[in-house]
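Assemble and predict.
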Amino acid sequence: GAGVSQSPSNKVTEKGKDVELRCDPISGHTALYWYRQSLGQGLEFLIYFQGNSAPDKSGLPSDRFSAERTGGSVSTLTIQRTQQEDSAVYLCASSLMEGAGNTIYFGEGSWLTVV
Amino acid sequence: AQKVTQAQTEISVVEKEDVTLDCVYETRDTTYYLFWYKQPPSGELVFLIRRNSFDEQNEISGRYSWNFQKSTSSFNFTITASQVVDSAVYFCALGETSGSRLTFGEGTQLTVNP
């Protein structure tokens, strides 16, 4: 696709349920990133992939959060046993290669609300 | 540790005014990258510019200009003759060569009133 595509765009879930958020990066981009933006706060790094490997997953807030990437393309961020504090916008981004010298392009985000 | 500070939480101007958004950063790296992103109400982060630490030349793109000063660790963004469509949250970010994550500032909410 032309840009980074994320789904669902909006998700309301009950506390304790699991959710999966999907990201389809720009075609040909080998690096993929997940960030979280909570209401009124800045962007918080979660994890990044180079190909299918995740060299830096230090931003994942707890072991309820996990992510995978298959085929060097689509990535899924999974949140298990969701809590209300997980409510946020989850932004996916991609770049041609890893490293800050490459421009990082963001998707429109998945708005998650845990009730 | 890296840090980005955008001291201006909110700015409100009248259309056609010039406005400068401040960004101050901290890093121990000698090579690093600075970014500005625009986040309109739709939520998508729109890339505006990337500069590397070796290029202190100021840049102009239409009504946008950027002033990078290593001596003060600042990378300020000026919008000339602002328009209502410029209303958005603007984020400054720092990328270091030691990793692939970006460190973002808290953002500045710019409102341009007609």
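The mean pLDDT of chain A is 93.
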